[in-house]
Specification:
The structure is a single chain. The chain is an all-alpha fold and 133 residues long. The protein has five helices and no strands. The longest helix is centred in the first third of the chain and has 26 residues. It is elongated, with a radius of gyration of 15 Å.
């Protein structure tokens, strides 16, 4: 069981949605931040660094959006308008970053892993958005 789920299960606040869906989104956000951060580092070590600039920028953006979304989900009311907007932005950022990483995935395994993490995060945030409707 993830720490996010343990914290939700032991929190005195009452959730108005499935804790499993919320915990899955928080865990996916954590994974995406880690994958994007590691991918940036790997991209910076590639021979053709100029080919990786867009990927690096999108990974930086995706990581920042995921960190903000994770923080808000971990401490605020899940159904707020701000939470929904952040989730929508996170879905868009993960999709864009995942698309760019997929472009490099055949040449760079680290980009393939990052694309997978972005896709998982995108799906988990969409599931949470659906649960909030």
């Amino acid at each position: 069981m993830s720490y996010a789920r343990q914290m939700l299960d032991n929190s005195p606040r009452t959730l108005n949605l499935d804790a499993g869906v919320l915990a899955a989104a928080i865990d996916a956000l954590d994974d995406c931040v880690q994958a994007c951060t590691a991918d940036i580092d790997a991209d910076l070590s590639e021979q053709n660094l100029s080919d990786m600039v867009k990927c690096i920028r999108l990974c930086l953006e995706c990581s920042d959006v995921c960190v903000a979304t994770r923080g808000v989900l971990s401490r605020s009311e899940s159904g707020s308008r701000i939470t929904r907007r952040l989730l929508e932005v996170c879905v868009a950022s993960c999709k864009t970053c995942g698309d760019e990483c997929e472009r490099h995935a055949q040449r760079h395994a680290h980009c393939r892993v990052c694309a997978e993490a972005c896709r998982q995060c995108e799906q988990a945030c969409r599931a949470l958005l659906d649960a909030l409707k």
